Structure formats: structure tokens, C-alpha cells
């Protein structure tokens, strides 16, 4: 079951999107995607959540206090490069859209107010595209592994990272030690 994350600083938008996705089948090309939907009002908190929870798709508002949607999606991409990224905005800022496409690798821009059918269809298409892209990557990695172009360790690291984002990242302390608690430096 695909898990999606919606990030917007307006609670009524989050509730509306959650309600829409709960009652509207998310389907494309005869395939129905039953969704698990997580929402978050704070992009920083959403990134913390994404560190340990794999998402298939993230939908972010463009304008949010503290961190805009492009910066959020760019950081999200670093954590979970295989997740589809969409941006939602009531503002038609061409430079912002170009930055979102180039820097954060978004698949689609969705305008507010959105058309319910188009929004759900866009999510379904993005999930289908991402599923196909992930399967292609997995087959390519298996071929590289069998030809000796990819080590078994790298293959397993990629597999684990897809299942548990952040599991293969190591935080090093200033003395070269492994940091189990990244907040330990802040408390010293």
C-alpha cells in the first residue's frame, strides 16, 4: 500500500486533501492505489518523520513559513530519492517553479484551488510512474550486480535504504566517533 506525505502549513488544506483521498479511488490505467496518507504542517518535522518512514510520494505546499516547498522537497529528495515529489501552490511564480523542477526534481505542479479529479489522477499517475522507475532501477541494479559492476554491499545498502530511509547513514562526531544521538552535540 503506497504511503504518501502531504505538507502544508494550513490545517484546513491538509484536512481537505486527507478527506478527498479517503473517499476518492486513486487509480490509473486500471490500477488502484489504496493509500496511507500522513500529513504535517511543519516541513522540518516532516523531514524528521521522513528520516525513518519510507514514502512513495510527497506533496508539498510551495509557500510555507520557515522553509519553502522547494527547499523542503530538495532536502526530502536527499533523504528519499525514490519518492515522487509534487508541489501545490496558489501562486504562479515561474522562477519558483523552475527551481522546483531543477533543484527538487518535482514531477508536477498542482495549482490551488485544485480540481479534485485532476489532483487524484496526478497522484495516481505519479505513483505509477515512480513504481515503474523503482522497478527499473531494481532490475538495473541486479544486472550490474551480476556483471560485477555493483558490489553486493552497495546492492544491499540500496535495498535497505529503500525500506528504511536513513538506516545506512552514519553521523560522525568531531572526535571521529559514531553518533548514536545526533542531538548529543546540541546538549554539550
Q: How much β-strand is present in the residues?
A: 15-25%
Number of helices: 7
Secondary-structure class: alpha/beta
> What is the ordering of alpha helices and beta strands?
EHEEEHEHEHEHHH
**Largest beta sheet: what is the strand line-up?**
4-1-5-6-7
Distance between the termini: 42 Å
Describe what you observe in this structure.
- There is one protein chain.
- This protein has one domain (3-135): Rossmann fold.
- The chain is of the alpha/beta class.
- Helix 2 (43-50) runs parallel beside helix 3 (69-79) and helix 3 (69-79) runs parallel beside helix 4.
- The N and C termini lie far apart (42 Å).
- The model has no long low-confidence stretch (mean pLDDT 86).
- The chain has seven helices and seven strands; from the N terminus they run E-H-E-E-E-H-E-H-E-H-E-H-H-H.
Key features?
188 residues; alpha/beta; Rossmann fold; 5-stranded parallel beta sheet; two-stranded antiparallel sheet; 7 helices; 7 strands; 15% strand; globular
Layout of SSEs?
Layout: E1 3-7, H1 11-23, E2 27-28, E3 31-32, E4 36-40, H2 43-50, E5 57-61, H3 69-79, E6 84-89, H4 94-104, E7 108-111, H5 116-146, H6 152-163, H7 184-187
Parallel strand pairs: 1-4, 1-5, 5-6, 6-7
Antiparallel strand pairs: 2-3
Helix pairs in contact: 2-3, 3-4
Amino acid at each position: 500500500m503506497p504511503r504518501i506525505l502531504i505538507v502544508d502549513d494550513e490545517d484546513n488544506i491538509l484536512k481537505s486533501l486527507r478527506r478527498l483521498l479517503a473517499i476518492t479511488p486513486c487509480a490509473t490505467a486500471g490500477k488502484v492505489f489504496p493509500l496511507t496518507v500522513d500529513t504535517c504542517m511543519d516541513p522540518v518535522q516532516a523531514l524528521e518523520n521522513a528520516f525513518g518512514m519510507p514514502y512513495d510520494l510527497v506533496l508539498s505546499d510551495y509557500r510555507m513559513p520557515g522553509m519553502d516547498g522547494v527547499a523542503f522537497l530538495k532536502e526530502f529528495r536527499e533523504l528519499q530519492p525514490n519518492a515522487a515529489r509534487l508541489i501545490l501552490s496558489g501562486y504562479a511564480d515561474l522562477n519558483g517553479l523552475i527551481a522546483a523542477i531543477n533543484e527538487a526534481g518535482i514531477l508536477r505542479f498542482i495549482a490551488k484551488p485544485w480540481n479534485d479529479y485532476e489532483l487524484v489522477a496526478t497522484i495516481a499517475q505519479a505513483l505509477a510512474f515512480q513504481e515503474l522507475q523503482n522497478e527499473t532501477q531494481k532490475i538495473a541494479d541486479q544486472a550490474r550486480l551480476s556483471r560485477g559492476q555493483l558490489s553486493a554491499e552497495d546492492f544491499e545498502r540500496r535495498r535497505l535504504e529503500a525500506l528504511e530511509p536513513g538506516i545506512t547513514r552514519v553521523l560522525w562526531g568531531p572526535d571521529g566517533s559514531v553518533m548514536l544521538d545526533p542531538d548529543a552535540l546540541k546538549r554539550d
